[in-house]
Amino acid sequence: MTHRRKFQVFRRRRPVTMLASFLLATFVASASAQAEPQHDAFVFLSLEGYQMHSSLNPELDGPGHRATADFLYSYNSDNFRFLAEYILSNTEGEMERLKAAWRIDDSTLLWLGRFHAITNYWTTEFHHGQYMQTSISRPGLEEWEDESGPMPSHITGLSLESDFALGEKSGISLGLAAGLAPRFEGNQLVAFDILDPGSGHELSLSGRLVYRPDVLTMKQIGLAVAHNEIDVVSDSNPNLVDLNSIRQSTFGIFYNWQWQDWRLSMNWVYFDVEMQYRDRDVDDEFLLGYVQGEYKASDDWTIFGRVEIGDNEDLSEYLQLLPNVIAHRHMLGLRWDFADSHALTLELADTSTQGAAFEHANFKEIRIQWSAVFP
Amino acid sequence: MRLRPLQLLIFAIMAMPAQAALAETAVVLVTGSDSQINEMSTLDIRKAYMGISVTINRLSVRAVRHNDDDRLNKIFLQSVVAMSRRSYERRLLSLFLKFGTPRPVEVSNHDELTELLEKDPRSITYMWKSDADADPGVRIIRVLWQET
User: Fold this and answer.
1) Fold topology of B26-146
2) CB 3.0–4.6 Å: which of A28, A97, A140, B89 could bond A85 by disulfide?
């Protein structure tokens, strides 16, 4: 979101009133629930500098930086939970998550509000907590909408989270969500703005099933399925003139495993995209995925690498509409954890974006980042 | 034979400091004196302190931590959660980031802790056995660690 757009959003009175009412209602509900609520708040900070090099494409050549503060607050009482996440950086300011939950029982929560898409593995593991993810970069598959991500990452509506014990330590987690999907505008997906309820968005339905062999660890393997009806703002880009809507169905499998000092995580997503033009429909099928490996050489040092690839993505008409989406990346990095909760990370990568035609745009990148969490 | 009572007295006097030392160097899991939580497995204790929901006698257990006793905290990390401090904090932070899961409540002094245990019968915490024995407001559930 640009700064100009952000200020426009905050000038509108009616949505702000609605937001205030929403917050008030959640706090009233919590007050009636019980007497001993708990508040938790954290801020994730990060400073990143990067240099990209491309001999062919000047847009992918040059330095850059990003400073980010991610504010999180949660409120918990017996039957009620509230969670807010606001991100502020040198390029955007956005209410990322704003949701309230009713606790149906000890292991089931029904959420209402704006949340991160439950089908995106990386997103639901790390959200905007840069310090929590080992690498600096996110996989292109799971980039945010405003970073050319191919999947919706913000949904506004209802979601249900439930955990079932299988044995003493193992369990299954079920997630279901229904809400408003992003729309396609310019050359990216644009999430529903909770402060602008009249902006017009279509339906998003999703579900995921996760098996955890040991709930005391982060080991998990899961399936995720989603269907998104994506409205298109046809006059926002000449390439969208005849495009009315996009139906995107995805099926993904994700995995995170640890063996002593080794960790392996991956996510593979099959896309079935139906693009409905004024005079024709285009069916588009492709696969995107990544594998990230990590080795903890000591308590403080971690070596990691990631490969991002796809199948049939080169010919995808849908991805042609997202020229900056990361199609391929081969990355290596080193992270140093110091003090209680600070980290310095270095990343080197050979990367390709989808590009405007059927040829990827290649560039090299080097990134360095400090990240931390307070308190 | 005449010396036997004296010998017993000497042995008893000699044993007293040893018993006191044993009491002081044990860490126990406690709850409020009126709580319905009578027993907890090692796994359930670990789950409760890792932010995973544990229900006992229809009570959702609430884990409470100390932040004023370094040695006690070290024993807690080694014997209860079996993780380094950084890994444990990271695990709690991950659950908070993902689900808004509340972290274990932290208290900084014994009076505050006793008050919390009395007020909330779902609360559990760990403390030195000597402190638990001296506090009528708490009840020992089990021994977590003992110096050998």
Assistant:
1) D-Maltodextrin-Binding Protein; domain 2 (3.40.190)
2) A97
